Amino acid sequence: MTLTRDEAAAKARHVLAATEVEPFTHDELEGDAVCGGFAFTAGDRGAVIGYDGGYQTSMLELAGETMETLVMGWLVEQRHRHGVPDEAPARPTHPCPICGQPTPHQDRYPASVCRECESRAADRDGRRIVAFNEDLGGGLIVFYAESPAGRQSEIAEDVLVTRRCWIDGIECSINDARFGGVVVQRLEDSAG
Which among 128, 105, 107 has a CA at the least distance from the CA of 174? Predict the structure, then answer.
């Protein structure tokens, strides 16, 4: 956890298009070093800025949410994303098409890769990438994990245009998921 509250506030101001944001302190969110982060409000809008660089925003009243529900939704999603066990009933899985590890299954994404493999995604030349939703409405934005200008400061244009990435030399597709988030799937012709 290297993200400070001030850095998170700067990102919240950007994603909420606000000049000022108010911290929404939440012990469970801020205390979870893997899945947590910081939360902020700006009028009727809220944002959770994750320690891992991701974020989620909400037009709270329009979405019928409170900051508490936004934060709890973030924690549930991130714990699922990072494979942190929860008390929920077992979900269906399929073997990751890259490494074989059990991966949460959705019929819409039958060839989705596990989070560990997704974390190794790179462009055609092997530069590691990270991807997020562009904004509350979805959309895909892909950055290089590292660049001369700093972490996640350079857009991976080729990946964004082609919607292709590589994991351990295996070609995959990368897209925004239907209900938020990013999904990486092994391409069938790469099934070798």
Answer: 128
Phi then psi for residue 63, to 5 deg, are: -85, -5
Outline where 93-187 has alpha helix (H): 115-118, 157-162
Per-residue DSSP letter, 99: T
What does each of the 192 residues of the chain score in pLDDT, given as a tens digit?
468 889 999 999 999 999 999 999 988 888 887 888 999 999 999 999 998 778 888 888 887 788 988 888 888 888 887 777 655 455 688 999 999 988 888 888 899 999 899 999 999 999 999 988 877 667 888 999 888 777 777 889 999 999 999 999 999 999 988 777 889 999 986 544
Strand 129-135 and strand 102-104: the pairing is unpaired
In this prediction the pTM is 0.53
R_g (Cα) of the chain, nearest Å: 17
69 to 13, 64, 65: CA distances (angstroms): 20, 9, 6
Region at 159 (left for phi over 0; alpha for psi -120 to 50; beta for the rest): alpha
Q: 145 and 152 in contact (C-beta within 8 Å)?
A: yes
Contact 21, 40 (CB under 8 A): yes
Residues with Cβ within 8 Å of residue 158, at least 6 apart in sequence = 123, 124
Own/partner contacts of 84-88, CB < 8 Å, gap of 24 or more, are 84/34, 84/35
